[in-house]
């Protein structure tokens, strides 16, 4: 068994090679489908003020800005933020390098998005802090979308830790996972290679039940919580590959 990563693994994980792999791995059509879901489910008005956190390299932020919304993207990765800024020429979007918990709590946003499975990056105390920050960021009546692939109801049915290989162009990724029962978390180990370049990194995805997530969000002012299994609007169920949760901030 390899040495376990630090609980703050995300500080150093998202350098250029991992970021570039994920920039290539998701098609523009998927981004459009996800933002269609956000606009429809939250009923976003034109020129809504939207916070995307963490925003990664900005694919959701940029699509929202192209549709006329006023967007702020927050992410801890300096490389991802710089990439997003370069791609944002002419768009009404601001990118800020910061921890996901360090977002404005001035109720200034019509909607907040937490997409890409990042809700599971934090241990429970950190997640509580993030949930409180989300509650402070959204205006009364505003909306929230959380995309979470590490819900217990998704991960545990039929869990098998089989190695896999992924490729996008000249980048190859060897990936394996290990479930820590005592910690209710997954260690996901990756080896990224591109030519002579090689990066070995490990991520932690904390596994939370849907009930835990609902409790955290409802305790921080969110209501009308709905659960979906994907952007086409199917209901979330045992074994669904991802959870898309929508909520409304109490008026």
Q: How many whole angstroms does the radius of gyration measure?
A: 18 Å
DSSP summary: helix tally: 8
Q: What are the segments in which pLDDT stays under 50 over at least 5 consecutive residues?
A: none
- Main β-sheet, spatial strand arrangement: 3-2-1-4-5-11-10
The portion of residues forming beta strands comes to 25-35%
Helical content class: 25-40%
Mean pLDDT: 96
Secondary structure category: alpha/beta
Task: Provide structural commentary.
The protein has 251 residues and is α/β, with parallel strands linked by helices. The chain has helices spanning 10-13, 16-25, 28-42, 59-66, 78-87, 124-137, 152-155, 210-218, and strands at 49-52, 70-75, 93-97, 109-114, 138-148, 164-168, 171-180, 185-194, 197-206, 222-228, 243-249. The strands form two sheets. Strands 3-2-1-4-5-11-10 form a seven-stranded mixed sheet, with helices on both faces. The longest helix is centred in the N-terminal third of the chain and has 15 residues, at 28-42.
Describe the structure in brief.
The protein is of the alpha/beta class and 251 residues long. Helix content is 29%, strand content 32%.
Describe the structure using short key phrases:
32% strand, 251 residues, alpha/beta, 8 helices, seven-stranded mixed beta sheet
Write the layout of secondary structure elements.
Blueprint: H1 10-13, H2 16-25, H3 28-42, E1 49-52, H4 59-66, E2 70-75, H5 78-87, E3 93-97, E4 109-114, H6 124-137, E5 138-148, H7 152-155, E6 164-168, E7 171-180, E8 185-194, E9 197-206, H8 210-218, E10 222-228, E11 243-249
Parallel strand pairs: 1-2, 1-4, 2-3, 4-5
Antiparallel strand pairs: 5-11, 6-7, 7-8, 8-9, 10-11
């Amino acid at each position: 068994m390899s040495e376990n990563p630090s609980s703050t693994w995300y500080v150093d994980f998202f350098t250029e090679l991992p970021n570039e792999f994920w920039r290539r791995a998701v098609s523009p059509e998927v981004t459009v489908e996800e933002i269609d879901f956000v606009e429809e489910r939250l009923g976003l008005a034109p020129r809504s003020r939207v916070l995307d956190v963490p925003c990664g390299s900005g694919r959701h932020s940029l699509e929202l800005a192209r549709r006329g919304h006023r967007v702020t993207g927050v992410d801890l990765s300096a490389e991802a933020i710089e990439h997003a800024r370069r791609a944002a020429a002419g768009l009404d979007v601001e990118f800020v390098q910061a921890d996901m918990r360090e977002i404005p709590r001035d109720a200034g946003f019509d909607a907040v998005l937490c997409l890409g499975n990042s809700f599971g990056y934090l241990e429970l105390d950190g997640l509580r802090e993030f949930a409180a920050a989300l509650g402070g960021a959204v205006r009364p009546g505003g909306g929230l979308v959380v995309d979470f692939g590490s819900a217990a109801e998704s991960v545990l049915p039929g869990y098998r830790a089989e190695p896999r290989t992924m490729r996008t162009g000249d980048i190859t990724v060897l990936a394996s996972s290990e479930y820590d029962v005592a910690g209710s978390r997954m260690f996901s180990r990756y080896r990224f290679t591109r030519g002579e370049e090689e990066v070995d990194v490990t991520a932690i995805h904390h596994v939370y039940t849907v009930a835990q997530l609902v409790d955290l969000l409802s305790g921080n002012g969110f209501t009308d919580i709905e659960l979906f299994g994907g952007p086409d609007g199917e209901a979330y169920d045992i074994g669904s590959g991802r959870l898309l949760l929508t909520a409304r901030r109490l008026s």
